[in-house]
Amino acid sequence: MASKSEFSGADSGAEWERFDTRQRLIRYFLTLGVLVILAAAWRSMDINYGYVASAPNEVMDLLTRMYPPNVIYTSEIVGPLLETINISILGTALAIVMALPVAFLSASNTTPNRWTYLFGKFIVSFTRSVNVIIWALIFVVLFGPGALAGVLAIAVRSVGFTAKLLGEAIEEIDRGPVEAISATGASTFQMFIYGIIPQIKPAFISVATFRWDINVRASTIIGFVGAGGIGVALQTNINYFKWDAVLTILIAILGIVLVSEGISAYLRGKVS
Amino acid sequence: MATQPGSVDGNWERPTAFYNRTTKYVVYALITGFVLYSFWNIRVSPDRFLRGLGGGVTLVSNMLPPAATPMQFDLMVQGIVESILMSIIATTLGIVVSAPVAFMAANNLAPRPIYLVGRSIIAVTRSFHELIVAIVMVKAVGFGPLAGVLALAFKTVGFFAKLLSEEIEDIDTGQMDAIEAVGGSRMQVYLYSVLPQIIPRIIGLSIYRLDINLRHSTVVGIVGAGGIGITLLNSFQKYDYQYSSLIILVIVGIVMIGEAASAYARRRVQ
Amino acid sequence: MLHVKDVEKVYDSGDRALKGLSMDVSGNEIVSIIGPSGAGKSTLIRCINRLTEPTAGEIWLDDTEITGLSGSQLRETRRDMGMIHQEFNLVERLTVMENVLSGRLGYMSTWDAFRRNFDSEDIATAREVLRRVGLEGVENDRADELSGGQRQRVGIARAVIQRPKILLVDEPTSALDPETSVEVMDLLTEIAREDDIPVLINIHEVDLATEYADRVVGLSDGELVFEGAADELDERAQDIIYRGGESRAERDAAKAERTQHAGE
User: Fold this and answer.
1) Which of A138, A130, A147 minimizes the C-alpha distance to A232?
2) Sign of CA dihedral A30, A36, A39, A41
3) What is d(CA C10, CA C5) in angstroms, rounded to the nearest whole number?
4) What's the CATH number where A159 sits?
5) Do C163 and B1 touch (CB under 8 A)?
6) Does A195 share its domain with A253?
7) Which of A134, A212, A272 has the most B C-beta neighbours within 10 Å, making it the best mutation to test the interface with B?
8) Class of domain B68-269
9) Cβ of B252 and A126 within 8 Å?
10) Does A121 map to a domain?
């Protein structure tokens, strides 16, 4: 029988702390450290506090000048919007073509040797680490302003991502069926078509549509450096302070982004 | 073998994922047609393409070796530091703002109208590319890092609130009931049952988002929103490609370090 | 028919899975390989069609020496050996028909294979074979929609449509429940009899092995330790295969003694 004193006695510990002293010190120092870094970061940015104070007003002013959106302008942005979608589709298609060999190189079970593996991994991480707008800058220098530079920027930027995910799918395939196909006397290429491709096809479709979805967003901005699409029109209108037209464009972008997201989600749901 | 080929149906067609085979070919034709149309639409002449490739060789040779004058070097370091600071502040600001949005957008905690508002905020903040947000912010608050911080924080809200609200929707409501049953107020319920369940995820997501914001902070400068981006854009406009290539390499290095550090930190936390 | 001579397999890890093993399969006999796990049963089956590369020795199928064959010659010889796998090894996302017809890949051009342009005679045969294994009407189902027993029947159909000279069967029932195991074994042996081809089957259930096999081969630690008719596999023979010659009674006694010593 438990005595009542177990609940009331001072010796059983009326005080309770969640952390012991050392843990608490560490937590305080971590919190303090984060705060110091934040404060230092804020101070060293040389932010003009006049701007900060007026920012809410400026944003409100912007919003009132944007509304209502310029409906008449809608007809003028159909062309650039189509170009944006074209860029995203061609860029994604080109990316997939380039990513396939890279994927097989960067998958440990299909790469010929260590060096090809490292080479595959290098392409994957390098193309992924350079932002699409930087690729666009480079390709505008090479091919001049226009959609071609945009397509190439989107394509090159997407290679790493696409190849990485496809490579992972290849690494996860079941060796059994592949072996069974080659045991029937099939050639290497036939083994590929019947044993490997059916296994990576769902991953392939979902990676492609997922990347296309990302690329639709990316192709709305590469116009800022002259690489085609709706971004060119957006920048022009901002520079001329035509805010009602800007809002029209923003709504249009929102529209295509949401539609492409829906399509991409639908297709991915279908293959899984 | 006891097979008489003549007596059994020798035709077989692979079933298709489409409604029927005609639909399949129509869909394929449409896709092919659209790609070809896209190709025609951007008007690539082979001549221009080849000239571009030739230009590539020249550009690469102009870029090598990466180099900078001492003054340019200082400018670059300044830009990089600014980018890093921007990403830290924007991440913090974004998380602070997104916490209430996440609770609003969790359908197990928020009433229907508030839930819809929360979801709309998330949809809008997620849909626009960070550079579009940045270019608008520059016009709103002027050139400089403040615009960048606001743009990155704006994007952080969409990302963070979405993932966090999904996390909140998955919590174990039994723990909430338990706190409520001992007489806890609404705030106490959040503090003692919801928060402990989502804290590890919050930390993990914050580190991940910091990594993403670091990437973006290196480019928002291209539209004037602070950081190293403007230096890069200027170097391109002045045809100073050796300097451009140095900046790009430094950005790649920073991004890779950030990614590795973020992956390491997230493993430690989880 | 099949003649295995002094075959050795040493894995990269240094494991000697087969230590110079010889055996024959001929006529239309059903030979089952039994032995404890790790004895080298699977390795032996897989060495015959070189899914696992033997380290030394010779393997003859009729007049062809398999271990020395080049890529394209090996593929041609593999067409004559139907294999049935432990985990069925069907391509799950392809239809039953495609899985069965993949048994004919060795006879098709790559281009036809790519376009799924199968010979109409092969398609007719595939339907016939599916009927024989009791899977009429499922040819358009995807392989991952089938039950384990049905999948193994597709596996059998894929091997049979090769019109092989011999069937190599690697643990056909280890992924199946006992009842389905019996059905699959019935089907397998019946088809082999009808088509008049020998079967080399690696199986770990001794009662299934003796029930269906004409001859039993016992492996232990990479060596052949028993060979004889199924009814010769008595208690003594099993002791040799599974317990290194110790009888079950002796082994229990020895164990009891060890325990006793340990207790002192």
Assistant:
1) A147
2) negative
3) 16
4) 1.10.3720.10
5) yes
6) yes
7) A134
8) mainly alpha
9) yes
10) yes
